[in-house]
Design brief:
The protein is mainly alpha-helical. It has 12 helices and 4 strands.
Length: 325
């Protein structure tokens, strides 16, 4: 509907008091309501302050690192399968980073649960699990390259296509899971834009998907593949000397750091989801809320950490023509 030319000025001039209490932002012809003067208890005020302080540097550093890494990859003349896995990981991290400003805005002016919040939560889950699955794929890929060098050489001509297929499969699985379970993230299930109501439990099959397929299986694979790769590299040190020996030690150290980073970043958030699922007592509501919020921030820091660690690892490994080192 057409409005007079001075409609915006008149509207805001006559409704300034109302706007202070509940500003309205028009987004794609849908009204998104947010309150810049919320009534918060002590726990929520402390969490809001924590998130402002914690998420802002993650956004700045993560954006800088991921944009830099993406630019480097875009200038690559020769892509390998490891570059494809790494690019997929960076893409997932970058998508998580660009939505962080809305998470920071939420700490100042809480957004009323809406379809936008459902989209943001789906995006958050999608980015986290695409990172988890891609890191898992990288761990498997590196273990196979070290443990079965002749098989790796035999599949060298198809390695890039295999990597692309795996990445497409990862995003397809995540999209299907989100599409089938988005009802668990609808506005009526949310306490705040990024927080589910403790009384509204995830459906059992969705919870099990997140915990088992999304975490337990990947973390076991990452631990198994990483420890085996490190063992093979360390065992091979007695057969090499000089620069090659130093290189293998460095690669083993980076794989170790990446494995512990994976565990530290993604374990707390899944413990938090478990607590949210099993606890219904109102007296524990604040504890679960605080634990899950802090755990989600820890998971988000992975966007900064793996953009450094995995790129450094792949850069070192790809200096050598032999993928088995």
């Amino acid at each position: 509907m057409n409005q007079p030319a001075n409609y915006s000025q008149t509207h805001f001039a006559t409704a300034s008091l109302t706007i202070k209490e509940r500003p309205i932002l028009y987004l794609k012809n849908r009204t998104v309501e947010y309150n810049c003067n919320p009534v918060l208890n002590h726990t929520d005020r402390a969490l809001s302050l924590f998130e402002r302080v914690a998420y802002t540097p993650v956004f700045i550093v993560g954006l800088l690192f991921n944009v830099t890494a993406l630019c480097i990859f875009c200038r690559l003349k020769r892509w390998t399968d490891t570059h494809i896995y790494m690019f997929n990981l960076l893409l997932a991290d970058f998508l998580a980073i660009i939505f962080l400003p809305l998470r920071i805005l939420e700490t100042f002016c809480p957004i009323k649960p809406s379809e936008l919040c459902t989209f943001l939560l789906c995006t958050q889950y999608s980015n986290m699990y695409s990172s988890i699955f891609t890191i898992t794929a990288i761990s498997i890929h590196r273990f196979i390259a070290v443990r079965f060098p002749f098989l790796t050489k035999a599949l060298a001509s198809k390695s890039k296509m295999i990597a692309i297929s795996k990445c497409i499969f990862i995003w397809t699985i995540i999209t299907v899971i989100c599409a089938c379970n988005y009802k668990d993230l609808l506005p009526d299930k949310l306490e705040y834009c990024y927080d589910r109501k403790l009384t509204k439990k995830l459906k059992q099959h969705f919870f099990l998907l997140l915990e088992i397929l999304g975490y337990l299986i990947p973390v076991l694979i990452v631990i198994l593949c990483s420890t085996q790769t490190i063992y093979i590299l360390i065992r091979s040190l007695k057969h090499v000397q000089g620069r090659d020996k130093v290189e293998r030690k460095n690669i083993a150290a980076i794989i170790t750091a990446n494995m512990f980073t994976f565990i530290v970043c993604f374990t707390p958030v899944h413990i938090g989801l478990l607590l949210q699922y099993v606890i219904s007592d109102d007296s524990s509501k604040d504890f679960v809320h605080v634990f899950l919020d802090v755990a989600e921030w820890i998971a988000t820091t992975n966007c900064c950490l793996d953009s450094i660690g995995y790129y450094f690892l792949l850069k070192r490994v790809d200096k050598r023509d032999n993928p088995s080192y």
